[in-house]
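Data availability (excerpt). All sequences and predicted token strings are deposited with the supplementary files. A representative entry, Glycosyl transferase, group 1 family, is shown inline so that the format can be inspected without opening the archive.
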Amino acid sequence: MPRVLAFGTYNVRKHPRVGILIDGLRKNGCEVAEINKPLMLSTAERVEILKKPWKLFGFGLELLGLWHSIAKHARTWMKTNGKPDAVLVGYMGHFDVLLAHHVFKGVPIVLDHLIFAGDTAKDRGAQGLKVKLLKRLDRMAINAASLVVLDTKEHQEMLEPGDASMVVPVGAPDEWYEAGKQAGERSTDIVFYGLYTPLQGVPVIVEAAQILVSRGITPKFTLIGKGQDYEKVRSISKGMNNITFREWVEPEELPSVVASHAISLGIFSTTPKGLHVVPNKVYQSMAAGCAVITSDTAPQRRVLENGVVFVRPGDPKALADAIESLVADTEYLTRKQHDARTAAQRFTSDVIARDLAQWISNNK
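Structure token line:
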């Protein structure tokens, strides 16, 4: 049985991806131990550090303390258990993988590299030297890994030809599938949740809602989250009584909250990054049994197939038309909810981690 050590400052509660991989590896016959001291930063805060590396000094003592703890724990673990067959460094592990490379000499290191620091910073308005430095950070992280795991073919193509890599879809945790099974009767309510970054395209959502109001169609929208475009979205939606804003929902509650809605919205931006990803929320919302609408991009169409409703990126009218077609036709809505649940079965943790478990077995 291959022995894997999940290592780093990842926070499964805030970033479930590494938890999905750990669960999937276990279901595929790997023994997985964890040496983890979560760095209590949100995704937005981590991205801000990637955009402004000098802010690293602001939490440097905390990070160094966590690193000292996990490095010491790792050495103690290896004295008892020997070296693991592989080390898994979780999502947003640009810095953790450098430590892992130092601590686990001669051990294959798998880096789950869903975010390119340079690409993310550029997507949020950075340019010039800052982007060059962050691309250098990406390269250092990639060079420290034996295998780089990406979520889409488009991200894989951003690597250099000699980089060992594998595409593993993001997938969804088991609790999202369970929430879908437990959901009662659904109305035609619509939900979005996310960070309000340009990638998400939330202004497109409220503009689509305005178009629907002009047609006399007023389904209830719940928009969960906060971020860069939040004030803009609030301004656009001023006076609209069918939109409810919730700035935060606890991660443990989010699956059931989403599953109580009939329709869930993905991403709608036209940014380069928006054209490269299949977002967490799409996998999760399909698992929760919602009909899902998201942007018609190459990776989403290739991966999701008929599991979702596609609309042109950045087009509020196209989104309004898609919402209207679902809320106006109960049979169509039910069919797209069924399609989502069916497609979601391809992205359970055991399915998505199968090839990674095989790679670890072959390279131990």
